[in-house]
Amino acid sequence: MANLFDYLDWRGDLTLDQVPFNDIDSLILSRLSYLPFDGIVPQSLQESITIAKASERFFASKEAHEHVIMQEDIPLLQEVANSGRFGPLNLLGYVNQVDLEEEKQFAAVVIQMSPDCHYVSFRGTDLTLVGWKEDFNMSFTTPVPAQEEAVRYLEQVGTTLTGNFVIGGHSKGGNLAVYAAAFCSEKLQGRILAVYNNDGPGFDSAVLATDGYQRIREKIKTFVPQSSVVGMLLQHEEDYFVIHSTQIGLMQHDLYSWEVERDQFVYLDTVTDGSKFIDQTLKTWVANLEPGQRELFVDALFSIFEQTKATSLKELTENWYTNARIILKSLRDMDDAMRQTISETLRLLLKSARQNIAIPGPKVRRPS
Description:
This protein is of the alpha/beta class.
C-alpha cells in the first residue's frame, strides 16, 4: 500500500506551480518541523536556507542524526530535499525550546512555498518527558506554555513576513496550529488560508466557544486514522476526515502508515468502534475528574518518572529494568494520600470504560 514515500516518487518532480498544493503536501511539511535543524536552519525570519541545502548540512552532522525522533524522518528528508517539488523551498525561523521549569516543549519552522505564501509548521511532542508532561497538562489547563508560544511565534511570523499562510502540524503540533490560528489577531486570521490538524488533540469547550476559534473554524482541516486515540482527545467542533492506516492501535498515530492514492489520502467513512470507545471513555473519565484531580494525577505520575533521572523516553526505555525498579520503589514510598489519588483516578477510568462500551462515536465527513 502506498504512503508518503510513494507520493514523493510519483509527484516529487512536479513543482507547486505545476501542480497545486494538496493535503499530502501539508502532511509532509508538517513533519519537517520534527527534524533537528538546530544550527542548520536560521532562527531569523530574515534569513533562509533551501531544504536541499539544509539536508546537506544535516547529513554532514553526526550530532543531528542522534536527535532524530523517528528513523523514517531521515529518508523523508533525503527524498524531500532531492525532489523538485520541495528541495528548492526555503526554510526559516526555526525554533526549538525545551524548558523544564515552565514544562514547555515547543518547536516550529517556516517553509516558504512561494514569495507570497508560507507554511508554518509546528512540531508535535518530541521524546522529552517534559514534552509529554505538557501534553498531559492540557487535560486540566489551557493554555499550556507551548500554546502561548505558538501564538507569539505566529504573530511574529505574520508581522515579519508578507503574504498569506497555511498552518499545520502533526500530533500536538496540530493542536498548536489550531490554537495559534484561533488566538492570533483577527487581522492575521484573515491572511490564513488553511489550518491542518493531523491527528492532534482538540480543546475544551471554553476554547471552542471563543470568537477567535469560531472565525477560523471553517478553515480547519482535521485528519485522523481509523483507530485514532491522540486525535480524539478532548473536543473537536469541526468535522474531520478519516484516513486508512496500515498500522494497528496506537501505532496508527505514525503518519508514515497513512495510506495515499496518487495525490490524495485513502479515506474511510468512519473511525473504528475501538476508537469511538476510547474517545467516549476518555471524555467521560476526564469529565468525572475535577481539574485539580487531573493535575494531582499528572504530577504524581511524572514525579515517579523523575525519580529515574531520565529526561527522555529514550533514556527511560534504554534502562528499563533499572528504571522499573525505581518506579516500583517510588510507588511503595509514596504517601497514602497520593497513592489513593492515583488509585481513585484509575478506578474512574475503568468505570468510564464499562459505561461507554455501546456509545456511538461523533460525526465524520468525506472530502468532496
